[in-house]
Amino acid sequence: MHLFSNILYLSETGPAQASSLERAVTMAENNQAKLTVIDVVPVITAGIGLPAGGPISEKLQTTVVDNRRKELDALVEPYRERRNIETDVLVGKRFIQAIRAVLRNRYDLLIKPVENPDFIQRLFGSDDMQLLRNCPCPLWLLRAEDKSKYENILAAVDFDLDTPDTADQGLNRKILDLSSFLALSDFATMHLAHVWDAPGELSIRLWSNDPEKASMAYLNDVRSRHEAAFEDLRRQFKARIGQETYDYLAPRFHLYQGAAATVIPELARKLRADLVVMGTVARTGIAGLLIGNTAEAILEQVQCSVLAIKPSGFVSPVRLSDK
Predict the structure, then answer these.
(1) Mean pLDDT (whole number) for 40-46
(2) Rounded CA gap, 68 and 79, in Å?
(3) Which residues, at least 6 apart from 58, have a Cβ–Cβ distance to it below 8 Å?
(4) For residues 52 and 40, what is the distance between their CA atoms, to the nearest angstrom?
């Protein structure tokens, strides 16, 4: 099964990239995919009072681009015996140029080392968060110490029980397909997690004549509905990959009550997850809010690599024609 055909790797100046680039090359090999390695350099001006685009600025820009291209070629040279790798250097704002490259060349996976590998409290930098919000294809952010073979992969799924058969199912399927592919490739344990909450419990307690009984009945009902949805997802997944593959994969299922923004990071730490695979876009939201609040809260807490997926139909606000 090949999930990708055209992979983009965005170099990150500073962090050691050996493990990240190795992962990108391996993914290209396993998928028989094209691999392109790029970097983005800022627009260069000659100095105060001199506009960009003048002769001096153009000469400086060309020099910076040429030097960075040589560095990229040296970075990928050890891997060229394994895979044909193209390189390119773009000019402009980093995350915007990366997204434009995805749009222009129809890349179906973007791999990038995390921007702040040594920052304890917040794993991702500003460019990483912009890519998480706005990149239309799956985005794989790799920490510097990313393992060559993962041991535990945590896939987080969600359901909208009030409107079934929505885009949730398609997004969950993408999450499961990618997680299972990586788990099988790395001989890793696949963990599938769903966190549910009961937002109406307080109201029921306030208005019921028997708060404890009413609350318990409400919680049991909500829990059973989520259990049924989770079980249905398991059956569909098993039917799609087949009994033999399912038995070999032996996925482990985790169903918790609580706030996903708290539970998923805690579970990732408890399982010592090497990778969290999850969706990043809320079902409904405010105009301009392109990443769910829960998703962003999770991403700010996890200290492992992350594979973030957009639902089908997501349209990035970044345009090729933007200035």
Answers:
(1) 84
(2) 18
(3) none
(4) 17
Q: Which two tokens stand for residue 19?
A: 């493990």
The first and second tokens of residue 112, run together, are: 């990038």
**Helix pair angle (167-186, 211-241), 10° resolution:** 60
Report the share of the chain in percent with pLDDT over 70: 84
Average pLDDT of 257-264? 91
Phi first, then psi: what are they for 27, rounded to 5°?
A: -65, -40
- Identify whether the C-beta of residue 250 lies closer than 8 Å to the C-beta of residue 187: no
What SS3 state is found at 107? coil
What amino acid is encoded at 185 in this protein? S
Cα–Cα dist 110/94, whole Å: 13
Separation of alpha carbons 203 and 141, rounded Å = 40
CA dihedral 235, 241, 242, 246 (to 10 degrees): -70
Residue 163: CB atoms within 10 A of its CB come to 10
Q: Which helix (H) or strand (E) holds 271?
A: helix 260-271
| Cβ–Cβ < 8 Å for 312, 167 | yes
Q: How does pLDDT run across 193-232, given as a tens digit for each residue?
A: 999 887 765 676 666 667 778 778 878 888 999 999 999 9
pTM passes above 0.70: yes
Among the listed residues 192, 123, 115, 138, the one whose alpha carbon sits nearest the alpha carbon of residue 307? 138
Which tokens in the block code for residue 314? 């997501």
